[in-house]
Amino acid sequence: MTKKLYIETVGCQMNVLDSELVVASLRKEGYELTDNTRDADTILFNTCSVRQHAEDKIYSALGRLKNAKQSNPKKIIGVLGCMAQKDQRLIFERAPYVDLIVGPGQLHQVPQLIKEISAGGEPRLEVSLGRKDGSRSDIEESHESFDPLRDPEMRPTPYQAYVRIMIGCDKFCTYCIVPSVRGPEQSRPPSQILTEARQLAGEGCKEIVLLGQTVNSYQHTENGRRWRLSDLIYALHELAGIERIKFVTNYPKDMTDDLLAAVAELPKCSKYLHVPVQSGSNRMLERMKRGYTVEDYREMMDRIRDRVPDFAVTSDFIVGFCGETEGDFQLTCELVREQRFKNSFIFKYSERPGTRGADLFPDDVPEEVKKRRNNELLAIQNAISEADNQPFLGREVDVLVEGPSKASVKQQEADAQQVQLTGRTMCDRIVVFDGNRRQIGQTLPVTIYDANAHTLFGTVVTQHVGPELFSLEPISKPPNRVNILKNFIPK
Ligand code: SAH
Ligand code: SF4
Ligand code: F3S
After folding, report:
1. Beta carbons of 155 and 20 less than 8 angstroms apart
2. Ligand 3 lined by 15 (C-beta under 6 Å)
């Protein structure tokens, strides 16, 4: 008998990929996805600990399930991911009806654990070793990369896929919980990554996004050859079917010239670089232990500008970090005005117990000040994003079509053939235009007629109808896709 699975995902792209893979492994066990907790036999939360807010959201969702579990004790409730690794038994204490707590390094165990619990087994806790709980190699081994075979139906679009090239992080920025919950930095062997990408290309995937917390720190030696991220990109570029290659997130200090040369030279490589600077004040960068100065970051931006034509850079910022003065904040505003990022993700500092930042510095910037700085920086960034999108008016751009736009999904047009579509340019700008479902997955020329801070609006350039556009085959309905991202909150 088929069983029903409900999954909710918060956090970063790593978690989105983990959820895709967990769902794929449970589908092999006969599970089908449902989009409501009522019908579900198993309810899973794939969690994030990067800020308090992400944790609060999951604890409230768990609270709402108390009655459901009381009326149906057979429902299995599981907490996966970074908060499972961070809070461990505390989750059982706060929500005693949880059956399953599994850290990000143990996700391969999920199907077996659910089977055992369904058969009447005890609640289970499976997590990896903490960063001080053993030798480096023991800790590394306890964080297993979870990359089984892929399931194209479980992606929001079959034409795009995340591919993990690294797990963990060794940078230990003082505010950040990721190194403790995701474990030591480990690069996957290039042969495995290439096999996975080849399989994805064979399934019709056109864009791959390489994932790592500091993706440009990638290095792996295999059969005596040392591979850097640039080497990997050159190899992936050879794969037929793959049209675009992106990679996130970059660490400023590891933005080497060989990588910039690959980005500039290779036509399939997206000209988009996400390189978070976090602050424009050297005093804050030092406290954050980011390992570079604002001058280093400027020098890196100059190199990108010199080498990569039509590039777009985006950044993350933390406002209200411990001891941040108005003067420090103004330096951040200046950097944003000067560097004109395509966009910026701005976060209010959230103290994370167990980090060096929490131990060393008081969280002393009041919440209202954090909020005000967040809004001010966002306003500066939005004005820049809007102004820098204006030169696109009248220009033709190549758009890889991802699917119906958010607006058309909301308007319940999901089944209509004529829909508003959304896709991205080579520099990762979002483009919205009217089109036909059959165009999803194609790369189309689109002329831009309007733009705001976040979106370009365009019309498809009418072309001579070639055989690929004029197909006599019946229009097949898209597979009945349950969007695992329905509940995903980016960043
Ligand atoms: N590995 C990536 C991203 C890590 S998490 C990197 O190094 O850039 C994504 C973003 O969340 C970070 O870039 C940072 O801006 C933000 N962040 C991390 N810890 C945070 C905290 N304690 N409070 C607020 N924002 C935080
Ligand atoms: Fe966190 Fe810093 Fe590692 Fe990014 S590089 S995951 S911010 S510790
Ligand atoms: Fe959150 Fe874990 Fe990603 S803490 S940001 S889901 S690595």
Report:
1. yes
2. yes
Ligand that comes closest to the CA of residue 344: 1
- Do 358 and 444 share a structural domain? no
- Alpha carbon 363 to chain centroid distance? 27
pLDDT for res 311 = 95
Calculate Rg over the CA atoms of the chain: 23
Q: Which of 106, 140, 174 is the last residue of a domain?
A: 140
Atom of ligand 1 lying closest to residue 316 CA: 15
Asked whether the beta carbons of 139 and 183 are under 8 A apart, the reply is: yes
Count how many domains the chain has: 3
To test the pocket of ligand 3, the residue of 127, 173, 181, 489 to mutate (highest count of ligand atoms within 8 Å of its CB) is 181
Residues 94 and 165 reside in one and the same domain: no
User: pTM of the entire structure?
Assistant: 0.93
pLDDT at 489: 42
- CB distance 476 to 25 below 8 Å: no
Residue with tokens 């290039």: 190
pLDDT, tens digit (0-9, with 9 covering 90-100), for 330-379: 999 999 999 999 999 999 999 999 999 999 999 999 999 999 999 999 99
Give residue-wise pLDDT tens across range 3-34.
Answer: 999 999 999 999 999 999 999 999 999 999 99
176 lines ligand 2 (CB under 6 A): yes
